[in-house]
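Quarterly update from the structural biology core.
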Amino acid sequence: MKDWVQQRMIELEEVAGHWQNLIDDYVDQKPPQMPYTKLIPESMMLFNGLIEGWTHVHLGERISLSENFPWVKIELFLHVLAGYLRELVFTQRKVATNDLYDLFNIVYVKPGELYWTEEKFWKNLINNQINFGHYFFSPAR
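Predicted structure, tokenized:
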């Protein structure tokens, strides 16, 4: 089990490094006031690329999402990913392995479900920057 966990950590560190290189190359190409929603197509391509890369490494063949993939089922993830990419492009924030763990956990949250975190960054991003606070679990609800 320890070896499996260590291998996943190494993979996520590689993904974080790759993402940071993409972000560094991307910074000069986009205007600073660009809304995060302009990055949704890039987010879809990036997610599909991650699926292809993972399946290639672990299954021996590249498998991508179908053209009919129901993106609405992972709308929170898609919008959070686009908002996160915008943060990386327009702030000094760097891609962190822990961010990727948090981000990839969000892929499991479907419309009508709730997400809980105490991480200030994610709370601010989801509530204030992409206005998806309706997905948050609050003990007061």
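The CA atoms of residues 114 and 135 lie 5 Å apart.
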